[in-house]
Amino acid sequence: MTTSMSAPQKPFRLSMLIYDTRYRSKTIQIAALIGFFCGLGWLIDNTVTNLSVLGKEPSFRFLTEEAGYKINQKLIEYTAQDTHLRAAFVGLLNTLLVAVLGCFTATVIGVVVGVLRLSKNWLIARLMTIYIEGFRNVPLLLWIVFIMAILVETLPAPSAFRGDSPAASMILGDSVAISNRGIYVPEALFSRSLGDISLFEGTSLQFEVSLDLVAILAVLGLSIWAAKWLGTRADRIQETTGKRPTTWYIQIPLIAAPILSLLFTLGFHLGLPELKGFNFSGGTHIRNSLLALWLALSLYTGAFIAEIVRAGIMAIDHGQTEAAAALGLRPKRIMSLVIMPQALRVIIPPLISNYLNIIKNSSLAIAVGYLDLTGTLIGITLNQTGRELETLLLGMMVYLTISLGISFAMNWYNKHVKLVER
Amino acid sequence: MRRNIEKIAALSLLAAVGIAQAASAEGTLDLVKERGKLMCGVTTGVVGFAAPDANGEWRGIDVAICRAVAAAVLNDPQAIEFVPTTPKTRFTALASGEIDLLARNTTWTFSRDVDLKFDFVGVNYYDGQGFMVRKELGVKSATELDGVTICSLAGTTHELNLAEYFRVNDIDFEPVPMDNNAETQQQYLAGACDVYSADVSALVAQRSSFANPKEHMILPEIISKEPLGPLVRHGDSEWADVVRWTLNALVAAEELGVTSENLDTVTASSENPEIKRLLGTDGNLGEQLGLESDWAKRAIAVAGNYGEIFAANIGEDTPIELARGLNDLWTRGGLIYSPPFR
What we know:
The structure holds two protein chains of two kinds.
Chain A: H1 16-19, H2 21-53, H3 84-117, H4 122-136, H5 140-154, E1 177-179, E2 182-185, E3 187-190, E4 196-199, E5 207-210, H6 211-241, H7 248-266, E6 268-271, E7 274-276, E8 279-281, E9 284-287, H8 288-314, H9 318-326, H10 331-361, H11 373-385, H12 388-417
Antiparallel strand pairs in A: 1-2, 2-9, 3-6, 4-5, 7-8
Helix pairs in contact in A: 3-4, 3-8, 3-11, 4-8, 5-8, 6-7, 8-10, 9-10, 10-12, 11-12
Chain B: H1 2-25, H2 28-35, E1 38-43, E2 51-52, E3 58-59, H3 61-74, E4 80-85, H4 90-95, E5 101-102, H5 110-114, E6 118-120, E7 125-127, E8 129-134, E9 148-153, H6 157-168, E10 173-178, H7 181-189, E11 195-199, H8 200-207, E12 216-218, E13 226-228, E14 231-233, H9 237-255, H10 263-269, H11 273-279, H12 285-289, H13 295-303, H14 306-313
Parallel strand pairs in B: 1-4, 1-5, 9-10, 9-11
Antiparallel strand pairs in B: 2-3, 6-14, 7-13, 8-11, 8-12
Helix pairs in contact in B: 3-9, 3-13, 9-13
Keywords (chain B): Signal, Transport
Protein name (chain B): Amino acid ABC transporter substrate-binding protein
Pfam families (chain B): SBP_bac_3 (PF00497)
């Protein structure tokens, strides 16, 4: 009879933490972690102590004080008497505006250019190469300043529109003015407006939501949903009966009629920009600073995205194209139905970093006087209050939040389009 | 090996703590003497006030303050490290101890003095904010500027003044905030803004560099007081005294007729008791400051008295062509005044 002898249980001794290989790696990691936190704590404590020696205890009280400076580009109401917090909020909205615009156009440019660079047409492919290499290899700041300089130097000043025989004139039936201060376009006005509702009333984050806009979006959304439903119904009928009912003569009025009648009820009309005094007034003013920043960000990031798109397409085996062609698909449909959906798997992860780059690069805005978050909170507010530690911490937190948000959303989308392996 | 790393880590930690404590315990004057070099914060370049010349040597009336202090404390006007600062970095540089003194056309305001914990030790240039426009605009006064577009530098007192001035006068304007002088000038000259607003001295200096200076005019309204002067950290009165009285010595020298040319003869022969106290041949003012008795004489010897510094850097014989105006001595109707050396 044999008895299984289990290995003798050695009592645990403290020295085993160092000499026993089973524990050593954990010991080292825990020690390193403690050391890291000690270092971090010392850094923070040192900063706080030194600041209080200077009599500048970290405090965010300045956020509720009057900002005192004006901001030209604002999406919500703001005057110089508002608080620094509200100024930062205005800047944040400006950052988001240029980021959203930039991400959108950069993607469009990137996809088009990326596909065209693979074109069999020698000239088109070479032109795209020149564009991509030109933008990828010159710092973004130079492009921003360069585009701004072109806008400012080549377009006419508002004074050129003045007088009996002006040197410049407005276009599109005197409704759009292109000047070196920006583009003035007609604005939408409602004579029987529904008014606004304010959110967060009484706080410094208060902002007005136009009920007209809400109504228009709601009606538009509903009618597009209805038209889509008609389309899927037609698909279903086609699948079962083989005959597709014609739907366009219902779909078009279904979208157009409700929105037109709503606009009529609200008394929709256009407010045209007109030259008054030194400047144009009325209409919507799209400032050169926004145009320059938007254009530069889109063209610059578009060049990177184009390369990503090209890499994505080239990652798809050529056999896929041949197989699709053998099935009788035309080249355009091969691209959109076979190649692109597969290429997206390769494209999306690096695309996320490029969207994050747009957000981060938009902080170069102050070079052309566009007041984004870096211009207001980390620029003027920092200068006026001298609270560099607090404003920078706050700014970093905001950028981090935005970036993580985008990253999260895009990763979710990535999972969504990823090849499902069985 | 591991032992060594631990030792080094522990030692460097101790050293870092030690340095941090030393910085708070020792006065700036002792630190500067020990280091043998003055760390002086200046602008990144405004000609006449502080800018490197063709040989890379810093020149200007702000630079002259640095040189005078270095001469008074270290007996060497070259024992300076100039630290160029932007409007954004200037206060951090001073508060953190990276520089001992900030001489960078910075406006003396309540909040900078009180809330930001700095000490302004005096004024070396009295300025005010003004407006520059094209003559063809036909504007004669700032009150006619309703609806204009104004270019100015972001993050300065100018923006606050503009917002306040236009609100008080119940007119409106569109601000175009710019990051630096060169960009602002380009925008203004291209007509992207109707008005260029800054300190009048800066406007005059910039206008002199335009292709057609005569097409532009400065409006009569001066909308703010911009007393520009050197500043130091709050809470080190000995050091503040050194900088303050060095600046005063330059002014007093002009008042008393002491120049870089007659400095030696005056030192040897003057019977004026205040001159004797100033130049250290009588009394112990230098000793009271913790300096040597000829501290003021050394400061004056670098580039002369306040008037000589003004004339050499921004005066009417320089391309910048600024009149003395408010910056003349009090005895000639200006505001420049030194408390007595007594």
